[in-house]
Amino acid sequence: MRRSEFHRAVEDEFGGRSVALMRDLVLGAVGNRTAAEALESGVPPREIWAALCAEMDVPPERRYGVGRLEPRRH
After folding, report:
1. Mind telling me which InterPro entries this protein's record contains (predicted)?
2. Which residues contact 2 (CB under 8 A, 6 or more apart)?
3. What is the pLDDT of residue 1?
4. Which one, of 62, 65, 60, 9, lies nearest residue 35 by Cα?
5. 10 CB contacts (<8 Å, ≥6 apart)?
6. What pLDDT does residue 71 have?
7. Every domain of the chain and the residues it spans
């Protein structure tokens, strides 16, 4: 998962709460850091996404493959 995919996934899943969650929610699974701090520390975006989903009880069917742009049609 790229950073751009991570940010897109967070925005799509959490909408208006995404900025606050990234900045304020401390995630134990990524070293007791916020998602923003974890990204800056070099934690892989996929790991942060998994921690955020677990903490926020995102259903498994909405956790995988999100954030990707649809392939272009030729």
Report:
1. DUF3046
2. 45, 67
3. 83
4. 9
5. 18, 21, 22, 35, 49, 52
6. 46
7. 3-62
